[in-house]
Amino acid sequence: MGLLDGKVAIITGAGGGLGEAYAKLFAREGAAVVVNDLGGPRDGSGADVSMAQKVVNAIKEEGGRAVANGSDISTIAGGQSVFEDAIKNFGRADILVNNAGILLDETFAKAKEANWDRVIKVHLKGTFCCTQPVFKWMRENGGGVIVNTSSTSGLIGNFGQTNYGAAKGGIWGLSNVLAIEGRKYNIRIWTLAPGALTRMTADLPRYKENPGAALGPDGIAPAVLYMVSDLSGDQTGKVLGVSGPRGVREMRMMEMEGWTPPFTGWKAEDIVTHAKDIFFSEEDIKKSARRFK
Q1: Residue 251: what are its φ and ψ, rounded to 5°?
Q2: Which residues, in sequence order, are bridge partners of residue 98?
Q3: Could you write out the three-class secondary structure of the chain?
Q4: What is the pLDDT of residues 220-232, one digit of tens each?
Q5: Catalytic residue among 22, 164, 185, 226
Q6: What does the pLDDT read at residue 45?
Q7: Domains defined along the chain, listed by start
Q8: Strand order in the sheet with 8-11
């Protein structure tokens, strides 16, 4: 008996890397899987549904159920197509993992409008396009689980990834609102911040310098299975970071107790006077928060 028996899962960007690992693990745990992938290189150019079909073939060879979808998830039509393939082939849409993404790294001073638009469109708009039809179906059919993929680049920051970090930070914000709106419909929302060695990340400095410390896709997948299965109970609105150096940990925004000024008559200098109530001290940070290195 599998953890996902009777469930139907949609996974975007599942023709390789993390998405492929999720798809194969979910299928082994009993889920029918819609494997979406546009195909092509990591910059998002080109299209080749054979990447998705290869994963589908591997799942079927192991006795699982899966169907390939080659739609561009950064469009409304593409997101609708992925959802419709789930309904047409399997009759349900219990799980959605928004995993598809591209990389077009450049420092902010050298940023090109075209690259900015492409990264935001695939990551942030793509998450919207795929989530909306699934969210609506879940709202009318008893709920489900949606996992949105953010990144420490968006939650904390990373040099040379302004477009990517902005998109991933936006996904985190989207997830926060979806968790609030979906709660009464039993729609659970997770945000994942993975750190894995894949073709998307292989030439990033932190992985090139210490590849032995990086998790592969199979090292991330169990955490996603936990999120979408009954193992995670009724948890929603949480961010889970998963990586080799840092392990599995919840990530949260921290907020100080604060100082309440009078409605009128206070000055900028008062912030200096009440700094200990407004700002975290270095000691506070050392005790209660860790930064990704």
Answers
A1: -120, 135
A2: 148
A3: CCCCCCCEEEECCCCCHHHHHHHHHHHHCCCEEEEECCCCCCCCCCCCCHHHHHHHHHHHHCCCEEEEECCCCCCHHHHHHHHHHHHHHHCCCCEEEECCCCCCCECHHHCCHHHHHHHHHHHHHHHHHHHHHHHHHHHHCCCEEEEEECCHHHHCCCCCEHHHHHHHHHHHHHHHHHHHHHHHHCEEEEEEEEEECCCCCCCCHHHHHCHHHCECHHHHHHHHHHHHCHHHCCCCCEEEEEECCCEEEEECCCCCCCCCCCCCCCCCHHHHHCHHHHCCCHHHHHHHCCCCC
A4: 999 999 999 999 9
A5: 164
A6: 58
A7: 8-251 (3.40.50.720), 255-293 (no CATH)
A8: 65-69, 32-36, 8-11, 95-98, 144-149, 187-195, 238-243, 247-251
Please indicate whether residue 207 is annotated as part of the active site.
no
**pLDDT tens readout for residues 1-40:** 899 999 999 999 999 999 999 999 999 999 999 999 998 6
CA-based nearest residue to 292, from 253, 251, 237: 251
**Which one is predicted more confidently, 49 or 57?**
57
Structure tokens of 166? 């902005």
From CA 118, how far away is CA 102, in angstroms rounded? 8
Q: Which structure tokens are listed for 85?
A: 């393939």
- Read off the tokens for 45: 């150019």
Chain mean position to CA 252: 15
